Amino acid sequence: MNLIPIIGIFDKKIMARNTSILLGDYFENFINEQISTGKYSSVSEVVRTALRVFEQEENKTKSLIHELKVGEKSTKIRNFDRDKNLEMLKANFQK
């Protein structure tokens, strides 16, 4: 395993800085494969793209959790029987 230097993410107020991370053989190979396809030109570019995707997924998860909490507080459904509803869903799925 090698330490791969990457350039920090740019921000309006902060200049980029070099950071070293230990990825392991699997991710080193994956990154090198991505670069060899020509889709990316550097390790930094692959890592920044991966971090953007990770950030998007985290934001989706936060949004989903927020909406679920809003739904739980909603009073639109009364007398909801969880077990009965699950059985109905299972029966419909098996059709």
UniProtKB/TrEMBL annotation:
InterPro entries in the cross-refs: ParD (IPR022789), ParD_sf (IPR038296), Ribbon_hlx_hlx (IPR010985)
UniProt keyword terms in alphabetical order: Toxin-antitoxin system
Gene3D superfamilies membership: Antitoxin ParD1-like
Organism superkingdom: Bacteria
Cross-referenced Pfam families: ParD_antitoxin
NCBIfam families: antidote_CC2985 (TIGR02606)
Family: Belongs to the ParD antitoxin family.
Name of this protein: Antitoxin ParD1/3/4
Organism, scientific name: Flavobacterium weaverense
